[in-house]
Amino acid sequence: MATIQYRLRSKANKNVSIKIRLSINRDNVFELNTGFTINPKDWSEATSLPKQNNPENKLLSNNLKKLETFVLDNLNTDLGRSILIDGLWLETKINDCFERIEKTDTGLIVNYIQDIIDNSSTRKVKIKGGYKLGLSKSRENSFISTKSIISEYETKTKKKIHFIDINENLVDKLTNWLIKTKKYAINTASKHIANIKTISIEAEKKGIQVNAYAKQINIFSESDEDRFIQTLSFEELETIRTADIKSEAYNNARKWLLIGCEIGQRGGDLMNITKEDIRYKGGNMYLDIIQQKTKKAVTIGIIAPHVIDIIENSFPYKISTQKLNLYIKEVCKIAKIETLTEGKIFDAKTGRKELKFYEKHKLITSHSFRRSFATNYYKKIPTAVLIGITGHSKESLFLTYINQREDKDSNADLFMKFYEDLNKDKKTEMKLIKNGTDN
């Protein structure tokens, strides 16, 4: 059982440091300064605490008891999370207990990120045509996650990271730790490294000393062959549409699935659609939305008869994305969407996504809707039109999204097709050209 004791550094007739000694077992004993001092004449050897002979000593005694409780509580929690317990861990807990964070040291990367988090609601964010106030919740959470990762890495390496420390060697070691030890997906690890690069560039503009390498970090990403994109083909969607589903909840989820695969929007935008977003012009149905992530205004023409019927006659009720992802797997299971498909599913035992072959219905999520739309209509509808609906900023991002490489021939084929359509009503004039003979 872990124990904590306090002792004085010396018995000199002056204020001396009070040390905390954490003993977990015979091989794990750590001793550090608490940051408090006391005159030895005011120290009780019997209780290993200040004598209760004046208000100052009573307050000091209460602080030491508070620290003991705080350290032991956090010790139990962190041991359960397999966090390394060492001298740096103890130092961090002492500072956390009394909120002694080096907030003035902006050169520390975790402090800089904390400042971003603290001021997220008023932080200026560059957008097309100017700036807006406030980070999105997802962006704020991304910084919170990166700060947590860096703090854990600092505990592991027993060293605080300043912007000036971010050299190639550190980035390589951090990347290796994220992927090999923490077993993060490549793209997840990449996002943390990208956050470090972004704030390093910003920090230098504010006059903070930054390692030159930090601004030139190469951001990696998952290769196309490592990306596993789950989509539903037109044939599979028809199977789902005609499946015999009794449950009201599953039927409702099926409607969202069928709509989602025809409008090409993110799950959050899909679930915010109401009948008030629908309008008609010239007998045609249009859906107008503003995408949450990009703030782009998008208009989608809806022409699939089964989707028009759902919207007009049995509009689905809103549910949480979590429930939607759960229900659509059951919908696809009932529809026998069960082809063995390679993909990743979260494993509670390992805490990571495991790459295996699964029955396809187990891999379908609300994110499959937008990808299905983009994949199904690629090369059937001009890419520029599809990009205008999905909201991708450029064709290269769209092609990466559906795991396709640019097909230059398809552009030429489309041009020729449109040219033929433009000229199909024109009669070709044939002229006889004499070749200088009567034959």
Task: Walk me through this protein's architecture.
The protein is α+β, with helices and mostly antiparallel strands and 439 residues long. It has three domains: 3-97, no CATH class; 109-222, Orthogonal Bundle (DNA polymerase, domain 1), CATH 1.10.150; 234-422, Orthogonal Bundle (hpI Integrase, Chain A). The chain has helices at 55-80, 87-97, 109-118, 137-157, 168-181, 186-205, 234-242, 248-263, 267-271, 305-313, 321-334, 367-377, 383-390, 395-401, 408-423, and strands at residues 3-8, 16-25, 28-38, 43-44, 49-50, 124-127, 130-133, 278-281, 284-290, 297-302, 340-347, 352-359. Helix 1 (55-80) packs across helix 2, helix 4 (137-157) crosses helix 6 and helix 8 (248-263) packs across helix 10 (305-313). The longest helix has 26 residues, at 55-80. It starts with a strand and ends in a 16-residue tail after the last helix. The model is unreliable at 427-433 (pLDDT under 50).
- Here the CATH topology of the largest domain equals hpI Integrase, Chain A
The number of helical runs is 15
- Can you give the mean pLDDT? 85
Give the CATH architecture of the largest domain.
Orthogonal Bundle
Protein name: Integrase
GO molecular function: DNA binding
Organism: Flavobacterium aquicola
InterPro entries: DNA_brk_join_enz (IPR011010), Integrase-like_cat_sf (IPR013762), Integrase_catalytic (IPR002104), Integrase_recombinase_N (IPR010998), SAM-like_dom (IPR025269)
